[in-house]
Design brief:
alpha/beta, 5-stranded parallel β-sheet, 5 strands, about 45% helix, about 130 residues, Rossmann fold
């Protein structure tokens, strides 16, 4: 069974690119283009991992990250154009498991997703290889 990844970005072409590479790697994807929808999908879809942009309409990525962390341990990979060290440190302080800046390499992002899932997997459990 493939793992489900929630991709949250307000730019459709970025979501489509990420989803294409994740699907090729064996993952299932769901998408949100704003923070409110992202939180709804976290509750209803229970994704294995969230790829989260920071600059989102309705609720920004900082707030979404805080809310996810308040109720669950779902791994979060922040993907954003905001590359200041203080913002990266804040992302980690709020609970992000990884922080990737745009522009990004899609294959590297998939590798980072796999690495975060591997670290989040219970010891002795199945390897998080995206269904492969």
């Amino acid at each position: 069974m493939s793992q489900k990844i929630l991709v949250v970005d307000d730019e459709a072409h970025i979501r489509e690119l990420i989803c294409l590479y994740l699907k090729q790697a064996g993952f299932e994807t769901v998408e949100a283009d704003n923070g409110r929808e992202a939180l709804e999908l976290v509750r209803s879809e229970d994704p294995a991992l969230v790829i989260l942009d920071l600059m989102l309409p309705e609720r920004d990525g900082w707030e979404v990250c805080r809310e996810i962390r308040a109720s669950r341990d779902t791994p979060i990979v922040m993907l954003t154009a905001r590359d200041a060290e203080t913002e990266k440190l804040l992302g980690f302080a709020l609970g992000a498991d990884d922080y990737v800046t745009k522009p990004f390499q899609p294959r590297e992002l998939v590798a980072r997703v796999r690495a975060v899932l591997r670290r989040a997997a219970p010891r002795g459990g199945a390897a998080a290889a995206g269904g492969a």
